[in-house]
Amino acid sequence: MNKEVFFHDLGLIDYKEAWDFQEKIFAEILQIKSDNRKNQRDKKTKNHLVFCEHPHVYTLGKSGNKENLLINEGFLKKRGAKFYHINRGGDITYHGPGQIVGYPILDLENFFTDINKYLRLLEEAIILTLKHYGLKGERSKGETGVWLDPLTPKARKICAIGVKTSRWVCMHGFAFNINSDLSYFDNIIPCGIVGKNVTSMQKELNKEVDIIDVKNKVKRYIIEVFEMEV
C-alpha cells in the first residue's frame, strides 16, 4: 500500500484544462494496474491531490438532468460561464472564483476499498475545517456533501461532492464555497435538490475569508483523515 500523495495547486485554471489533467493521471494509474495484472507485477501506483479554482462554469454529472440548468446558452455567455456534461456522479453544480475545488486522484487500494468511506472522509475533512471558523458542518442523510443546519428549514449546502471511480481509482472530488458569488447558483437547481439553499463561508461569517488559510486547513485534514504521506 503506497500512501504517498503528490500535491498540485493549479491556481485559477479553465475547467476543461483541469479535467484533461485529471484524465491523464487517472489513465496512467489504470494502465499501471492493468499491466500489473497482466504481467503479474507489483509496480506501485501513484496518488495525487489537486487543488484549483475555476472561472465560472456549470458541470452536469453523467446521471444528471440538464433541465436543472435553468438558463439557455445565450444567457450562459452573458454570465461569462461555460457548461460541461462530465463523467462524474451527481447532478449539476457550479464552480467559480472564490471556491476551493479539490480533485483527489487516488488508487483507493492504497488506502481502503470502500467508496462510502471515501466520501465520508472527504466530508469529514471539510467538517473539521469549518469547525476552525466556528461553523458546524454536518452530513445530510442520503445527500452527499457538507451542510449547515441540514435537519431544519434553513438547510444549506456549503460543499458539494461528486466523484468517478474505476477499478478503485477515483477522480473529480469536492467544491467548497469560500468567497463564492452565490448568485450563479440561482441559474441551476444545485445537485438536483429542490428547496434547499447554497451558502459560503463568506456569507455565514459575514466577511471575506482568507482562502489560502482555508485551503491549507483542508489539505491538512485530508492528509490526516486518509493518513497520507505528502
Structural commentary:
The protein has one domain (5-226): 2-Layer Sandwich (BirA Bifunctional Protein, domain 2), CATH 3.30.930.10. The chain is 30% helix and 28% strand. It contains 5 helices and 11 strands. The strands form 2 sheets. Strands 1, 2, 6, 7, 8, 9, 10 and 11 form an 8-stranded mixed sheet that branches. It has a 3-stranded mixed sheet with strand order 4-3-5, with no helix packed on it. A hairpin with a 7-residue loop joins strand 8 and strand 9. The radius of gyration is 17 Å and the shape is globular.
Topology (elements, then pairings):
Blueprint: E1 5-12, H1 15-39, E2 47-53, E3 57-60, H2 73-78, E4 82-85, E5 92-95, E6 99-105, H3 115-132, E7 138-140, E8 143-148, E9 156-166, E10 169-177, E11 197-198, H4 201-205, H5 211-226
Parallel strand pairs: 1-2, 3-4, 9-11
Antiparallel strand pairs: 2-6, 3-5, 6-10, 7-8, 8-9, 9-10
Helix pairs in contact: 3-5
Give the structure's gist in a few sentences:
The protein has helices at residues 15-39, 73-78, 115-132, 201-205, 211-226, and strands at residues 5-12, 47-53, 57-60, 82-85, 92-95, 99-105, 138-140, 143-148, 156-166, 169-177, 197-198. By secondary structure, the protein is of the alpha/beta class.
Succession of helices and strands: EHEEHEEEHEEEEEHH
**Any idea what the CATH architecture is?**
2-Layer Sandwich
Strand content: 25-35%
Low-confidence stretches: none
pLDDT averaged over residues: 94
Main attributes of the structure:
5 helices, globular, alpha/beta, 8-stranded mixed sheet, BirA Bifunctional Protein, domain 2
